[in-house]
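Write out the 3D structure for:
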Amino acid sequence: AFNSPHGLSLVRDALYVADTGNHAVRRINLRSGDVDTLVGNGRRGTPKEGPMSDPRSVSLDAPRAVAALNDQLHIAVTGDNRIWSYDLGRPSLTLRAGNRRVDVKDGPGNTASFAQPVALAAVQQTVYVCDEAGSAIRSLQARDNVVQTLLGQGPFAFGHVDGPRNIAQLQDPQAIALDPDAPMLWILDSGNDRLRSLRLGGGDLTTHMLPQPLHGPSGLAVGAGAVWIADTDAH
């Protein structure tokens, strides 16, 4: 049984699930259908870094998104506004970035602050973070844990502005996805009910007009030349 699952990450025959309401990260074996808990004891709390003798005795605080990168499963924990990683080779947790304060602040490790991270996307050595309350898109470098803001003008500063990153604005984004065929990050700008894209490598933010309006979209996937949108409030 699950309780308000949100984020998913697929690695070969394993589907990792951010089981938000159970304060846990779960794994589904797609061959057998078996479900097991990687980390989390079902109770809200703050974990400690380092190896764990029993990962299922550890408390998390509303993990919302997961993204696998190399042998690490990165976890966006919305309740404490931090990004953690779980070592898939051995039971161990590492704090990547964040200091529990709700803010949009850059820097290495725990000098950086997030504002309600709700979605992740990972490629090569970079983890992209969607900060809902900060109306921001951030990047986390896996090698040195340095956080940089790609989009966002500060905590709780929001709007609908296309163009260069220094002026572009979002409002309560809910989901992000990397384009497998182009250096592009797709963004569900849920507060504005818009599909946006950011050209990686210094490009601008663009709004894509659709044949019909969106209503509170919250899920996104990109592949086979198409963008798939879960238009949540339109059912």
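The two ends are 24 Å apart (CA to CA).
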